[in-house]
Write a structure and sequence with these properties.
By secondary structure, the chain is an alpha/beta fold. It has a single domain (5-195), classed as P-loop containing nucleotide triphosphate hydrolases (Rossmann fold). It is 32% helix and 21% strand. It has 5 helices and 7 strands; from the N terminus they run E-E-H-E-E-H-E-H-E-H-E-H. The protein has a 7-stranded mixed beta sheet with strand order 1-3-4-2-5-6-7, sandwiched between helices. Helix 4 links the parallel strand 6 and strand 7. The longest helix is centred in the middle third of the chain and has 15 residues, at 87-101. The radius of gyration is 16 Å and the shape is globular.
Length: 196
């Protein structure tokens, strides 16, 4: 299924899981730590500058944001793990993410983003464990790949083997918003998923 990514549109944002209308399309979600680059990846995927609002302030995406393209919803989940947020706000985000991922929606795939420059956080590992335990299909996207030199990158990839459970069994896509490395592969994966 060849998708015309330029035709993606913003659909809606929801601050509580209970506000989200019943599923009517297949869904592909983007999960990851605050400021890992989810909104940036969505903009690059759709060849747009500002479809998803990008901020240098972590924790900016505090809602679940839906973008529509043909028969698919692309769903930007709130970034987790940002320390400078009130406990009540953290709980609301957790409720949003848990409610969404634990629902019976047709979630075909989760793109799980991790900053390639650093070891995964406890929250990252928790999220990966959750996706494995619930048998939710996911792909690990290693963001900010352009910020590492070749040897640093090899070192980080080696370290991930011990830091991330089942790392060798996962589909890994290094991604850079600067060089656009990985974007074709992410599109190919998306199209393959939507063909099933």
């Amino acid at each position: 299924m060849k998708l015309n990514y330029n035709k993606a549109e913003y659909v809606a944002s929801y601050g509580k899981y209970s506000q989200i209308p019943p599923a009517e399309r297949i869904e592909i979600a983007f999960a990851g730590h605050s400021n890992v680059g989810k909104s940036t990846l969505i903009n690059k995927l759709f060849n747009r500058k500002n479809l998803a609002r990008v901020s240098s302030v972590p924790g900016k995406t505090a809602t679940i944001n839906f973008y529509g393209l043909e028969n698919i919803y692309f769903v930007d989940l709130p970034g987790y793990g940002y320390a400078k947020v009130a406990k009540s706000e953290k709980e609301r985000w957790a409720g949003l993410i848990d409610g969404y991922l634990g629902s019976d929606r047709d979630i075909r795939l989760v793109f799980m983003l991790i900053d390639m420059r650093h070891a995964p956080t406890k929250d990252d590992v928790k999220m990966i464990d959750y996706l494995i335990d619930t048998e939710t299909p996911f792909v690990l996207v290693m963001t900010k790949a352009d910020k590492l030199k070749k040897t640093e990158r090899e070192k980080r990839m080696e370290a991930f083997r011990t830091e991330i459970p089942c790392f060798d069994d996962m589909h890994i896509v290094p991604f850079s918003s600067v060089t656009l490395e990985g974007i074709d592969e992410i599109r190919a994966i998306t199209e393959e998923i939507c063909d099933d």
